[in-house]
Amino acid sequence: MLHKGGLPLALWVSKFFWIKCLEVSLTLAQNFGRVSAYRMASSGEICRLYRQVLRSGASYKDYNFREYTLRKAKIEFRRPVTSPEEAAAKYTKGLQEVKMLNRQVLLSQLYEHKISVIESPPSGDG
Prior knowledge:
Layout: H1 9-32, H2 43-58, H3 63-78, H4 84-110
């Protein structure tokens, strides 16, 4: 399956993901400069956290929970941070939320759910 630019879809998604990680890292670097009294998470750690949140959110079976989680993660990771304390707090909160997401996904997989109208195949009635 090819995307608009002629790249395979998996390669385009991977390229897009790394560009977003780089944007998040650059935003943090611009906000804080080089001096920080708190231990800042490296850009690799931030990208890893972002990837974990997206992966956990994508494993929900229910369409509404899945899309909400992915949308919220993207918004939160793009939100600018104003201080090193806030960055450290957000990173710690992100780690806690990944653990919570994994528990919620596990619980959601224990129960059966109806397939949403959005997820169901087209009926062909025209």
